[in-house]
Amino acid sequence: MRKVTRARLGRREFLMGSAAGAAMLSLKGTAGLAQTVQPPINSIPKGATFRWVDSGDQKAVFFKKFFADYAADRGIEVIYDPLPWNEIAKVVPLGVRNGTAHDVFVTPRNVSLADAVAQGWVQPYDEFIPNIEEWKANFPAGAFLPGINEFEGKTYGLPFTSNKRYGTHLLYNKQYVADAGFDPEAKPLTQSEFREAARKITEAGQGRYFGFILGGSQLNRWAQSVRNLARMAGASAGGDSVLDADIDLRTGEYVFDSDAYIAAIELLIAMRDDGSFFPGLMNLNAPQARAYMPQGAAGMILQGPWNIPSWEGQNPDFDFGVSSGPVPDSGPVGKLTISQGGAAPNTISLFSGSENGAIAGDIFHYLGTLEGQTAWANIVGAGDPPIMPEAVAQADMSPRSKQILELFNDQIRVGPNPIVRNGDLAKVIGTFVAPDVNFARTVQGLVAGELTDVPGEMKKLSDNYNASLDAAFAAATAEGAKVDRADLVFTNWNPDVDFAASDY
Amino acid sequence: MQLSQTLYRYRYQYLMLVPGLILAGMFVFYPIFAAVYYAMHDWSGFNADMVFVGLGNFATLFSDPIFWDAFGRSLLFLVGTVPAQLVLSLILAVILNNQLLKLSTTFRTMIFLPVVTPVAVIGIIWTFLLSPFNGPINGLLLNIGLITRPIDFLGSSDTVMPSVIGVYVWKWLGITLIYWLAALQTVPSDVYDAAKLDNCKGGRLIWHVILPIILPFAVAILLISSVAALNVFPLIMSMTNGGPFFGSEVMEIFIYRTAFATEDGSIPRLGYAAAAGVFFGVIMLALTILQSLATRRARRSTQEAGHE
Amino acid sequence: MSDAALDLPRQKRLTGRRPDARIFVTSVLLAAFCVVWIYPFVWMISTSLKSNAEMFGNPGLIPQSFAWENYSRAWVEANMGRYFLNTLIVTVGSVVIVTFCTALTGYVLGRYRFPGRNAILLAFVCTVFIPQGFTIIPVFELLSALGLSTNLLGLTLATSGHAMVVFVVLFAGYFSQLPKELEEAAQVEGVTFLQIFWYIMLPLARPMVVTVVIMQVLHAWNDFLLPLVITLANPAIRTLSVGIYAFKGEQFIDWTGMAAAATISIVPVVVLFIALQRYFINGLAGAVKG
């Protein structure tokens, strides 16, 4: 998803960012630098230029500060480019093709690391971190996985942030929601209450503010919102790769036309018909939508934890609450499923053509130590929580950040990851082409009113995806991969509990 | 022998062609051949897996409803912008061409202002102006009571194309105006005097007296404007990204989206995008030839008229 | 005819006053039209001087207090300064390249008959209207192969290459209608081929040169897709258009800073146009005539 990056650090974040807060400021200078930048683990060539690209956002707040200190200490130049995902999708492949890619990059959303390895985009970094096994042992179990970030015994990806989060929980204007008679902190809103709250807020706003906002031009916002609403309502869809996100891994079948998915879409349509949508929502991207919240223009948004440090830093007066995404009106609340390992979108790798492996190793190493993880957590907070739970525990985070991380612990479970069981599935992912009118577009079309028949469209979607998936399996098989759709079935999976290594 | 003689005889001419041909070869001719080559392959553009599929991409293209929708939208855009742009700017040009109008230059500059503004800026300004939330245009319409609810100009498929068309005409009207003014300067002033004697003015003056004289220009201007109207990528990209739900996806956006697919689960299809581009290019070429034939005919007829 | 003749005395009487009144009314109407026309710019400038909070609270055009810091923020933090310089380099570079190449080519194609001329001219005419969208990938490939895909030189060359065809055709048309005697006289004097071009033909084509310069400036200043793709891998060489678009993508929160950045980006072209508009119109008149 595309998140916002701010070039300007808020005053508060700046203070948080400088090592240990205001007290450290007086020490800034050589002593201050020594605190933030650890001694090098490799010999660093002076005067080198080192480039790094990722999806920025709150990460950029950390990296801009860190790289400045790091570059000064090591006597090198670091160029950091935080870019939105749609640009990364072009920058990285184009850069790899003509040999000018950044030294360290995240793979685009539509290219798995397995793919990148197969295409020769990246190189392993084992040789750049002395005693790498010892260092890797500091990570929580399951952080490094063959087929995910390890290939043929070599380490390619750095999973330094946790996957345990979701991007469609409720963030709300406390005043507006309280005036509407709800308190999501005490009890999560049900889907009906969510709709009712949005309607009442809009009514009270009298055109000055509205109940619900979302970055509607950003297609993946629609897909994620519906998926997570449906998962909580019991549609046990699988992991979070493009392949299996909407497949029930107990049966291996798509769940697009399940009651829970249809009900989730119909909820959004009902809210639209209530007039609860922020006007112009269809033409807002996620950063725009997010920016309207502190302006008091909308009461509720379904978004991710990265909003918390961002608003707390930039809009300290904004009184907002965080809570679970809407839960079903009746029945148990389903768990959300994630894949084992680090957060895929943040997993960084070393460009195969990079000659700065020593620098990358030095930085990767730091990010994988408790010091680095804690420094990260202090600034990035709940937005992209560090992968080591100890770092979360000792980090200096706002109450809202802690609250949302607790919620994630409660609501999120690790599901099976088909690639772990059969690495050849990476080839399927590599050849899989979603239908042109994909899930996200269909939801947008339905909510925008371009499409009308919800069950019919979702059935069609299911069929199209099945055809695409079958084609991908056929193509991968033709290329020699030993794969079968049965590889997507885990009959022993219980979505309510973590799927452990022993369950495979 | 013959060849080298020819080469020597015209050596200066050929030599002077070299810089231009190099530049054109690199950025005009080569890309066209390359695109045709890509169009015959199934290729993501980002790796070495390039499979020859012949005309397969074209077959897929012709049965792709999204492609035809985009194609239709490009034509709609053409029909929606060009006539409005030409007529409105001609009327303004005739008025501004009046020697007695002291402020003519100032007005001309003001109307030209959008032309020199980068499209990305135009897109941003108009997104704000058309916003249904506190946008000035909705504010005005609400205030004078024309509407009771703000219109989501760019967020609803009923209004998105008209809105984009309107902004496009606003952006480029100035350049057409300049073309017309240039054309009007070729009209001898005694024609106006004669018309005045005949008590011929307003629409009749334009239609019966001025238009026949500037007809060759009119065809050229029509041609330039038509082609410009098909190159609307930046404006639509910066205003709507082609949305909502393909609502403003014209050909160029279609090509860009397929060539650089960035959504989850989609893979760039450069070969397919190139096929769409080639098809579109052929249509454009046909359009060009058609219009240049029309120009020739128009010129010939005015020349004949002149000889009479 | 007889009616008109009868009307003549009356009309004569009125010519003293009525045209003036008509001109006045026309002027007022036009002025109103133009004010509406440029309202978006007025709004943009007004917004660029408001604070972000005021932008939502105060719909009026006059800011309560002038927030000049928006400009310094856009210039420094959004890198508008650097983008501005990049755009300037690309614009000036491509204008020089384009004018030189297209004038030469247009001159030869417009004034001489030689084997291959018709084929070349036809090739140019046919490609005038190829949309940019579909040639972008090969262009990028080519620049990559030449090692030019991530620097300003590559961007300048590609920006020059894209629009040149139209100018070649325009130049060819313009040169072809100049009188034949010009060269004949010169050749008698024993002047060389290049000298004829440089000292006689080019100065005569001044209106056309100015037109091409202005059109290329507009093109370079407005171009979007090409710089977008070429600067993807190297944000340091972004142009203003792309920079502002990226501004929208990443930092939309800062509305007023963006309005300031937008204002900065249009000032130079407006000044250029106001300074050169006389040449522009005369040049176009000559060009379209040909």
Key phrases:
heterotrimer, A: 504 residues, alpha/beta, D-Maltodextrin-Binding Protein, domain 2, six-stranded mixed β-sheet, four-stranded mixed β-sheet, 16 strands, globular, disordered N terminus, C: 290 residues, mainly alpha, MetI-like fold, 2 domains, 78% helix
Layout: helices, strands, pairs:
The complex is a heterotrimer of chains A (504), B (308) and C (290).
Chain A: H1 11-17, H2 22-25, H3 30-36, E1 49-54, H4 58-74, E2 77-82, H5 85-97, E3 104-106, H6 113-118, E4 122-123, H7 132-136, E5 150-151, E6 154-155, E7 157-158, E8 169-173, H8 174-179, H9 191-205, E9 210-213, H10 219-232, E10 247-248, E11 253-254, H11 259-274, H12 286-292, E12 298-303, H13 307-314, E13 320-323, E14 336-338, E15 348-351, H14 357-367, H15 370-380, H16 389-394, H17 399-411, E16 412-414, H18 418-421, H19 425-431, H20 439-448, H21 454-478
Chain B: H1 2-9, H2 11-39, E1 41-43, E2 50-52, H3 56-62, H4 65-96, H5 104-112, H6 119-129, H7 136-143, H8 157-184, H9 189-197, H10 202-213, H11 215-230, H12 233-239, H13 251-259, H14 270-307
Antiparallel strand pairs in B: 1-2
Helix pairs in contact in B: 2-14, 3-14, 4-8, 4-11, 4-13, 5-8, 6-12, 8-11, 11-14, 13-14
Chain C: H1 2-15, H2 18-37, H3 39-48, H4 52-57, H5 69-76, H6 80-111, H7 117-127, H8 136-145, H9 152-176, H10 181-189, H11 193-204, H12 206-222, H13 225-230, H14 240-250, H15 255-289
Helix pairs in contact in C: 3-15, 5-15, 6-9, 6-12, 7-9, 9-12, 9-15, 10-11, 12-15, 14-15
Would you give an account of this structure?
Chain A has helices at 11-17, 22-25, 30-36, 58-74, 85-97, 113-118, 132-136, 174-179, 191-205, 219-232, 259-274, 286-292, 307-314, 357-367, 370-380, 389-394, 399-411, 418-421, 425-431, 439-448, 454-478; strands at 49-54, 77-82, 104-106, 122-123, 150-151, 154-155, 157-158, 169-173, 210-213, 247-248, 253-254, 298-303, 320-323, 336-338, 348-351, 412-414. By secondary structure, chain A is an alpha/beta fold. Chain A has a domain at 11-163 and 342-414: D-Maltodextrin-Binding Protein, domain 2 (3-Layer(aba) Sandwich). In chain A, the strands form five sheets. In chain A, strands 1, 2, 3, 4, 7 and 15 form a six-stranded mixed beta sheet that branches. Chain A has a four-stranded mixed beta sheet with strand order 9-12-8-13. A two-stranded antiparallel ribbon of chain A has the order 5-6. In chain A, strand 1, helix 4 and strand 2 form a beta-alpha-beta unit. The two termini of chain A are 30 Å apart. Residues 1-35 of chain A have low confidence and may be disordered. Chain B has a domain at 64-119 and 170-307: MetI-like fold (Orthogonal Bundle), CATH 1.10.3720. In chain B, 72% of the residues lie in helices and 2% in strands. Chain B has helices at residues 2-9, 11-39, 56-62, 65-96, 104-112, 119-129, 136-143, 157-184, 189-197, 202-213, 215-230, 233-239, 251-259, 270-307, and strands at residues 41-43, 50-52. Chain B has a two-stranded antiparallel ribbon with strand order 1-2. Chain B starts with a helix and ends with a helix. Chain C is mainly alpha-helical. The longest helix of chain C has 35 residues, at 255-289. Classes of the chains: A alpha/beta (504), B mainly alpha (308), C mainly alpha (290). Chains in contact: A-B, A-C, B-C.
